[in-house]
Design brief:
By secondary structure, the chain is mostly beta strands. The chain has 1 helix and 10 strands.
């Protein structure tokens, strides 16, 4: 046989009429998984101002706007959660958020933050709560609410 080249390796003879062995069936699934994971890493999470709500569980109950930001309150059946979100995120500034159930101790998160203070969560089944927030010297406070 002129011009024909035959090689013999560990997988057997290959020649003009033979195909190389197919990759295992699971290799396609692994490749698809890796490509999907790579796409997620490259795309990354999109952060919008509404994403601050995702740190508190429950439904949005109240949003109280003030000069430098807003106080956001969320409620589940047993808990109330609060955030203080800056109107213009940027450099570090003094922020405080406080939430107190009637007859209980206040949960406070204070410090220097760029975007938000909190979340703070208290157990408030069948209890009113008092909420307050301060951002860069401006503040808002609510009396006993969510009764």
């Amino acid at each position: 046989m002129r011009g024909e080249v035959r090689t013999t390796g560990a997988t057997g003879a290959t020649g003009p009429g033979r195909r190389p062995p197919a990759p295992p069936r699971w290799a396609g699934y692994v490749l698809a998984l890796l490509l999907a994971a790579g796409g997620l890493v490259l795309a990354g999470p999109a952060v919008t101002p509404a994403d601050a709500a995702s740190v508190c569980h429950g439904r949005a109950t109240r949003t109280v706007a003030f000069a430098t930001g807003e106080l956001r309150l969320y409620r589940t059946r047993h808990y109330v959660c609060a955030l203080a979100v800056a109107k213009r995120p940027g450099g570090l500034r003094a922020m405080t958020v406080s939430l107190q159930p009637r007859g209980g101790r206040a949960a406070v998160n204070a410090g220097r933050f760029a975007r938000q203070a909190g979340p703070v969560t208290v157990h408030a089944l069948n209890r009113c709560v008092r909420a307050s927030a301060t951002i860069a010297g401006r503040s808002v406070a609510r009396g006993w609410i969510l009764c």
